Amino acid sequence: MRRVFCVALSFVQLISFDCILRLVTAQGVCYGQNSCLKGFALPETRSIIIDTDPGQDDALAILLALASPELNVLGIIGVAGNVPLHLTTRNIRVVCELANRPDMPVFAGADRPLKRALVTAEHVHGSSGLDGADLPEPMMKLQSQHGVDFLVETVMNQPDKSVTVCMLGPLTNLALALQKEPLIASRIQELVLMGGGFFEGGNITPAAEFNIFVDPDAAKIVLTSGIPIVMFPLDCTHQVLTSQRRIANFRALGTRIGAACAGWMEFFERFDEDKYGTDGGPLHDPNVITYLLKPEIYGSRFINVEVETESQLTRGMTVADWWGVSGKEPNVTYVRDVDADAFYQLLLERIATL
Ligand code: BDR
Ligand code: CA
Questions:
Q1: If you measure from the C-alpha of residue 125 to the centroid of ligand 1, how many angstroms do you get, rounded to a whole number?
Q2: Disulfide: which of 118, 261, 269, 340 matches 250 by Cβ 3.0-4.6 Å?
Q3: Ligand nearest, relative to CA of residue 50
């Protein structure tokens, strides 16, 4: 439908940049090239799948992806995490409609971790998971296909190594997909995930970060899968703190989306401000998307990372061999540094376009 609409517009020379990009990339014409149409310098596009448990920081990550013409979002999968699955899949659709993208395919994935009871985080995100902005119930429907099947099918059917998977919550869906079709491991271009922490300690227990703690068994499957992994642990995300000035910039956009972002950030930051005594809270998940757009704002090292699944004390701990003392093969690009001002500038600039 959107394609037809774009074509019609093109004949009257009213094509928006975004519309051209979506039309051309949808047909696979400009994949991996810098320019597709004579006279237009289009940015290289990257096809991504987002797997998420919104969550205010997840919501900002989704908006950033939808605002970025370099990214072709193939679909968004919900997982149980910050709140149960029926709320995360609702919240994804709230965000898509806020961004005026009711056409985005949204799928329900796993409603619980592989082997354990679900742990949620309403104490951080509020009872809806997306408290802080007053937004209408979504009208758009969930896809009938299961999210794990969508993930497998898409990775198997798209060109080899052309799909990047962005994981913003527990890693359950990707672990299930790997169990269902192990071949996806060699076909995924890159996996970029928010999870873990080592130098910062944990945020749900002294040792573990929430996304990994919720489903450490899934994390183990993913970390040992051989997929090229870029990991955004708390060691990085705790450097991108909201502040009154940064939040005011979003409100000053004067748009419904700007107001929603500001409301979400204000709601979300109070928990971490109280906990850490900081001015502002960390926006974890948008780092996964800003990395795809501006990798140069991050500093990382390719190291071995393993996850603890057994210990009562340290369940979900990600042991990061930063100094290479274990002699084990590196499996993760572990991101530890970020230019926080560049991060917020990019987020603001892109969300201003929605
Ligand atoms: C992670 O847990 C969730 O609460 C956030 O959305 C983020 O993905 C941070 O530990
Ligand atoms: Ca999340």
A1: 9
A2: 261
A3: 2
284 is catalytic: yes
Q: Which of 82, 166, 232, 240 to mutate to test the pocket of ligand 1 (most atoms within 8 A of CB)?
A: 82
- pLDDT tens readout for residues 111-167: 999 999 999 999 999 999 999 999 999 999 999 999 999 999 999 999 999 999 999
Cα Rg for the chain, rounded, in angstroms?
A: 19
- Omega of the bond leading into 169 within 30 degrees of 0 (cis): no
Q: How many CB atoms lie within 10 A of CB 54?
A: 32
pLDDT in tens, 201-220: 999 999 999 999 999 999 99
pTM for the full predicted model: 0.89
Give Dmax (Cα) for the chain.
64
Q: Give the environment of ion ligand 2: residues with CB less than 5 A.
A: 53, 55, 58, 168-169, 285
Q: Where are the beta strands (DSSP E) in 71-175?
A: 71-78, 106-108, 163-167
* CA–CA distance, 107 with 246 (Å, rounded to integer): 32
